[in-house]
Specification:
This protein is mainly β. The chain has one domain: Calycin beta-barrel core domain (Lipocalin, Beta Barrel), CATH 2.40.128. Helices cover about 5% and strands about 75% of the residues. β4 and β5 form a beta hairpin. The longest helix is centred in the last third of the chain and has 6 residues. The radius of gyration is 15 Å and the shape is globular.
Length: about 150
């Protein structure tokens, strides 16, 4: 796996007027194998100060996010079908349904970027739409320019 830096810019839309955005950078390990792109990085849960390990697999029509460290959970998104599962949190386990809306990969000279949009339906009633931008580069200065 190659080492570099990752910048994750995430905006979650709860309603037309209510949203929450976060941006962070971290060191990342990444590699491309055929049509799959693998990422592994740490982020810190601000409310408890624990490291969370994130593993992401991306293809043209599939996204898998696994998080370990503060509860273990997994989200799977497919472009043309819904995924049903259970999502453990510190507040309990929620029944969810996920759907990948769009996924685009752009490779520049110094940065690989993914633009991802997906929806999660919690307990079959509360829908959250997320727009995620992931930038990956070998040098931190390229990430900060994005």
């Amino acid at each position: 796996m190659e080492k570099g830096y990752i910048k994750v810019d995430s905006t979650q839309y709860y309603t037309d007027k209510e949203k929450d955005s976060t941006v962070f950078t971290s060191e990342v390990q990444y590699q491309s194998k055929g049509s799959l792109f693998y990422l592994k990085y740490l982020d810190i849960a601000n409310d408890v100060g624990k490291d969370i390990e994130n593993k992401i697999i991306i293809s043209s029509d599939f996204l898998k996010i696994e998080r370990t460290g503060m509860g273990n959970n997994k989200l799977i998104f497919n472009k043309d079908r819904l995924w049903d599962g259970f999502y453990p949190t510190p507040y309990g386990v929620f029944q969810i349904q996920t759907k990948l809306i769009s996924l685009n990969k752009v490779e520049g000279d110094n940065v690989i970027s993914f633009q991802i949009e997906y929806e999660i339906l919690f307990e079959m009633k509360d829908k959250i739409r997320t727009v995620l931008k992931i930038d990956i580069a070998n040098e931190l200065c390229y990430i900060l320019e994005q």
